[in-house]
Design goal:
Two copies of one chain form a homodimer. Chain A is of the alpha+beta class. Helix content of chain A is about 30%, strand content about 40%. The two termini of chain A are about 20 Å apart. Chains A, B: InterPro entries: Acyl_CoA_acyltransferase, GNAT_dom, GNPNAT1-like.
Chain lengths: ~120, ~120
């Protein structure tokens, strides 16, 4: 398991600014209390445009109310902008729509999924 | 513009099986009449899991009714499975939900977007 993790670490590191994982650490406990990641998709479409995909946004239930989720989203969104993306997107549940609207996002489409396992 | 296109071509080529663009060509005209792409997102989450993201599915309006969209989706979905993804996802409009349901997908979440330009 540790070997898998290390392999993945080096795979992601090799992607440089195209894959960023943001974390907030509680310095007193050393625990990670919020995280979110982004990867940059490169297209031929939209004049060889780039799209930022925000994934895996989680805030520890003991750290709610500190606006950490908003800070993570603001950081990842700014990263996408600096990378030259024409848009940044994410998928979320209906219950989280209001939160993302407060972060400046709008609903556009629906997400479809097919599971293999 | 051509230089941009070639730069992007080599960037995408370097991603190997992590980024595939599928096309259907009409051999008589030499025109591309259907396309769709997939890229493979690598996570730490889900036991260092992988997710296939299907993007940019388009069928020429003169080539409808030939099930080319279904073939493109089947090819990209199978690619995700072979790459070891635990799921494949895509975003689409409400009007296209029925098509993707026929392809074995289910709606799960909603897509949120923020445009920079």
């Amino acid at each position: 398991m540790r070997a898998n993790f290390e392999d993945r670490f080096w795979e992601l590191s090799a992607l440089g600014d195209d894959h960023i994982i943001s974390v907030v650490e509680d310095e007193s406990s050393g625990k990670i209390i919020a995280t979110g990641s982004i990867f940059i998709e490169k297209k031929f479409l939209r004049n060889c445009g780039k799209v930022g995909h925000i994934e895996d946004v989680v805030v520890d239930s003991n750290a709610r109310g500190l606006k950490l989720g908003k800070k993570i989203i603001a950081f990842l969104t700014e990263h996408a902008r600096l990378m030259g993306c024409y848009k940044v997107i994410l998928d979320c549940s209906l219950e989280n729509r209001a939160f993302y609207e407060k972060c400046g996002f709008k609903q556009k489409e629906i997400q479809m999924v097919k599971y293999f396992i």
